[in-house]
Design a protein that fits this description.
Elements lengths: L6 E7 L4 E8 L1 H7 L6 H20 L5 E7 L4 E9 L3 E8 L8 H4 L4 E7 L5 E5 L6 H13 L3 E7 L4 E8 L7 H11 L13 H7 L5 E3 L3 E2 L1 E2 L5 H11 L1 H11 L2 E4 L6 E4 L1 H9 L11
Parallel strand pairs: 5-12
Antiparallel strand pairs: 1-2, 1-10, 1-11, 2-9, 3-4, 3-6, 4-5, 6-7, 8-9, 13-14
Length: 288
C-alpha cells in the first residue's frame, strides 16, 4: 500500500531557516473529480488549488477551515477548495461551456482569487492577485505580501494525482539569497513521474539530496464533504417559498445535488410544506 498517497509530509532543514511540506493526493483527489467531467486544464487548475489549500492548512496553527476561491466571468466561473485543520478536503469548479481556455492566463482572465481562514471568531480573508503564469506564482506573491513570509510553491496535478511542495522561510532568521534560489530551482524540477510511486520521505530525500533534511510524521488527508440535510434546507429557504413551490409543481419533487460530493437529496410536497410552515406568523390575538 502506498502510505504516502493522501498525506502531507512536513520537513525542515538542519542548516537552513526553512520549513517545508510535501502534499500528495491520490484517492481523495480522484474522489473529488468523480462526479464531474472537467477538461484537462480545469482538472489541473483544481488539482493545483487542492494541493495548495492542503499546504496552507498544514502551515497554519489553527482550528477551522481554509477556503481558496477563484471567481471569474470568463472560462472559469467558480473554483472552491476547502481544507479543515484536520486535513479534510473538498472542492469543485464550474467552467463556462461557451469559452474554452488553452492556458492558466486565459482560464482566469478577469477572475478574483482569495484565501479565507475561518477559525471561528472572525474569518480572515487575504486577496490573492492572480499571476498569469500559474496559481503557484500567484500564491508566492500572496505569501510574500499578505502573510509576509517569503515562500516557494510548486504545484503539479493531472487526473490521477494532485501534489505540491511549500517551502517557507522561518521568520526573523536570515537565509543567503543563493541558498533560497537553489531551493526554488530544486522544487521546480518536480514532475508527474515523481508521484507514480512512493512520494513521501524518499522524494524529499531525492529532491534535497545535498541538504540535511529532517522529515516529520506524515499527516493523512481525507476527502470529506460537510454537506447536510440542514444545509440543503437552508439552500431551499434562500431560494424562497415561491420558487421552491414552482419547482415542485413542475417536477413533482425537488432534487438538490451537492456540487462537492454529488450527494443527492430529495424534497417532496410534504418536505416543502414542513420547510415553509415556520414562515406563517400567527396574529398576536389568535388563540393557538
Amino acid at each position: 500500500a502506498d502510505m504516502s498517497a493522501d498525506s502531507i509530509t512536513p520537513f525542515g532543514f538542519e542548516s537552513l531557516p526553512v520549513k517545508g511540506a510535501l502534499i500528495h493526493l491520490s484517492r481523495s483527489w480522484r474522489r473529488m473529480l468523480r462526479d464531474h467531467a472537467y477538461d484537462a486544464l480545469v482538472t489541473e487548475t483544481l488539482g493545483h488549488a487542492a494541493a495548495a489549500t492542503g499546504l496552507i492548512a498544514q502551515s497554519l496553527k489553527f482550528d477551522g477551515v481554509v477556503t481558496l476561491q477563484i471567481q471569474g466571468a470568463g472560462a472559469l466561473q467558480m473554483l472552491v477548495v476547502q481544507c479543515t485543520s484536520d486535513l479534510d478536503v473538498r472542492g469543485m469548479a464550474s467552467a463556462s461551456p461557451e469559452q474554452a481556455a488553452t492556458n492558466f492566463a486565459e482560464l482566469t482572465a478577469g477572475a478574483h482569487c482569495a484565501v479565507t481562514v475561518d477559525a471561528g471568531e472572525r474569518p480572515y480573508q487575504g486577496i490573492v492577485e492572480i499571476d498569469d503564469t500559474s496559481l503557484a506564482a500567484s500564491l508566492e506573491h500572496y505569501f510574500a505580501r499578505s502573510v509576509q513570509v517569503p515562500s516557494h510553491v510548486a504545484l503539479i496535478a493531472n487526473s490521477e494525482f494532485a501534489a505540491g511542495v511549500l517551502l517557507q522561510q522561518v521568520p526573523g532568521q536570515a537565509i543567503a539569497d543563493d541558498d533560497w534560489q537553489r531551493l526554488h530551482f530544486l522544487i521546480e524540477t518536480l514532475s508527474p513521474r515523481d508521484f507514480e510511486g512512493e512520494a513521501g520521505l524518499e522524494l524529499i530525500g531525492k529532491l534535497f539530496a545535498e541538504d540535511d533534511v529532517r522529515v516529520y510524521e506524515p499527516r493523512r488527508v481525507n476527502f470529506r464533504c460537510r454537506c447536510s440535510a440542514r444545509k440543503t434546507e437552508d439552500v431551499l429557504k434562500m431560494l424562497g417559498e415561491e420558487e421552491s413551490r414552482a419547482a415542485l409543481a413542475e417536477q413533482g419533487r425537488i432534487e438538490v445535488i451537492c456540487e462537492y460530493c454529488g450527494h443527492r437529496r430529495h424534497f417532496d410536497a410534504v418536505d416543502v410544506e414542513r420547510l415553509f410552515a415556520d414562515n406563517v406568523v400567527p396574529a398576536p390575538d389568535s388563540v393557538q
